[in-house]
């Protein structure tokens, strides 16, 4: 509609794809389940950020997304909340492996994502495990064995644990590559490709990146199916 177009212009949102839904410009408009909405309102947020407003309705249609938006734009909840909604619908046993998998470049970022997942998923009682290098594997493996609906991982450590056959990704339905540009800069492309081979082809894939260089375009073209692209601001 016209108001959706006006919102996009005002917030410098450009979208590429077929029949892209209008942005959800208020939390009330999202139709999120009450236990999720409650946590968002508890956080004191007044409105969705532009990337949230535009990527939520697309993600809720189960479509693949490439989102290019700078740091601090609220991308984490942009992908976490639709992931939560997938989880609510799935009947997967978390002891058999995660349903939602988020790849993140560093321990610090992965930990921040886990904190956000625990905070906003609290009322929904999702379990979330964080896997990263530079720390012993034992406690991470123990947590995995207890079951995790959501795994947030750096590609290196997750790949190590996969090679040990200590986690299965065959229940993953929702795969997020967060800070894809940063992960490629760190040389994680081989690990990412190995990990994605273990995730079922029937999945939803979301890629979040602050920049859009050709290396990122290439991996997006290989791993995503007919994605809708959402850019916030100028992207080169
Ligand atoms: P990005 O991943 O794009 O760098 P984050 O997801 O880390 O951004 O979000 C940046 C900050 O904005 C976080 O502290 C987060 O809690 C906060 N935030 C997220 N969504 C909103 C919102 N709708 N309104 C206000 N602040 C928000
Ligand atoms: Mg982020």
Automatic annotation (TrEMBL):
Q: Which residues form the Helicase ATP-binding domain?
A: 56-230
Q: Which domain of life is it from?
A: Eukaryota
Protein name (record)? RNA helicase
Motif Q motif: which residue numbers?
25-53
Which residues are in the DEAD-box RNA helicase Q domain? 25-53
Question: What gene makes this protein?
Answer: LOC105141718
